[in-house]
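Justification of computing resources. Each target in the renewal requires a structure prediction run like the one illustrated here; the chain below, 216 residues long, is used simply to show the kind of job we budget for.
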Amino acid sequence: MVRILGNQNSILNQFIAELRDINVQNDFMRFRRNLERCGEIFAYELSKELNFQSNQVQTPLGVAEINLPNETIVLATILRAGLPLHQGMLNYFDKAENGFISAYRKYSNDGTFRIQFEHISCPNIEGKTLVLIDPMLATGASMLLAYKAICERGTPAHTHIVSVIASKEGVEYMKRNLSAKNTTLWLGAVDDELTVKSYIVPGIGDAGDLAYGAKE
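Resulting C-alpha cells:
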C-alpha cells in the first residue's frame, strides 16, 4: 500500500517546499526542523492505521473512557540524514523503541556504488510494528537492505516505510520486493527521475549534508 500525503492539500506541502527550496536550504537549522515537522505529520497520519483498545483514565472528577494505541512500535532510522525525521516521529510516538542503522553509498571509480553497512543497533522486532525511516527513497536498494538486516532481529507484524521524497523507480522497486500485505509506504512526494548517480530529480539534494553540513 502506498500513501502519498503530499497529494492532499495540507501544511505538509509548505514544509516540503522549503526542504526543496535552495534559498531556504542555506539554513541548516530550518532544514532539520522542517524534516522534524514532516516526521510529526507522518506520525499523526500513520497513527490512524494502528490498532486501538479502550482504556480508562482517572481524572480529578471521574473516569474517562478513551481509545489508545496498543501496538509496540519500533522506529528505525538510516543514519545520518534520517535523524531529524526520526525525532519528529519520536515526538509523537514517545513510547517507541528505537533502532539505528549506519549505512552509506560507497562509490567506485567508475561512478557505481554499493551500500555499505557498518553497524546496526536495534531491539528485537518480533511481532512489533516497524517504522523504517529515511528522508529519501531513491533506488530503494538501501531501504530494502536495511529492512532485511533489521528483520534478522525478528519478523514485524507490520512495516511502515517513511520517506519525504521518493522516486517512481524506488517506489516500484519496493513494491516488487516487499510483501504488500504487511507493508505500507508513507511518502511526501514522488518525483519522476533519477540521475546516473541515483539522485532524485527534482528532489532536494543531499539531505544529510543539508541537515548537518558537507562531508568528505
